[in-house]
Amino acid sequence: MTKQDILNILGSFPYDRCQYWLITGGAMVFRGFREETGDIDLGCTTEMADRLETEGYLVRKDGDGKRRFRVGETIEIFEDWLYDSVEMIEGVQVISVNGLLRRKQELGREKDLREIELIRGRSGFRGDSQDQ
Q1: Which domain holds residue 76?
Q2: Which of 20, 28, 53, 99 can bridge 83 by disulfide, Cβ–Cβ 3.0-4.6 Å?
């Protein structure tokens, strides 16, 4: 999915944009680090997670007790998945570069480590400890 695909999908998404934000691949697309992503991952508030659960979406709990939802074929939503802050880009809340780096460092998978280098190379952004 390109940025325009994500905008089109979220344009018809029936939830308050203040209650969710783009994370992972979608955030990388919106920030220009990648051209496309395979799906849309969103972080959401506890209030939105409560609503999703009430509306009957299948819920899984992660090890920390936070909820995770699948909405349709392309959207996965993670309760309170927020590292650092968000900023509005083209009408969509997107996790900060620092938050994206912190999460990818925590995940530590091979693909995340490659993406950390990509982000740092394209943005010159090093992260919390090196940007102060």
Answers
A1: 3-120
A2: 99
Domain assignment of residue 129, yes or no:
no
DSSP 112-124: HHHHHHHHHHHH-
* CATH code of 37's domain: 3.30.460.40
Domain count, the chain: 1
- The residue assigned the tokens 């392309």 is 74
Half-sphere exposure of 58 (CA within 13 A, CB side): 6
Give the C-alpha separation, 89 to 130, whole Å. Answer: 25
Give the type of residue at 125: F
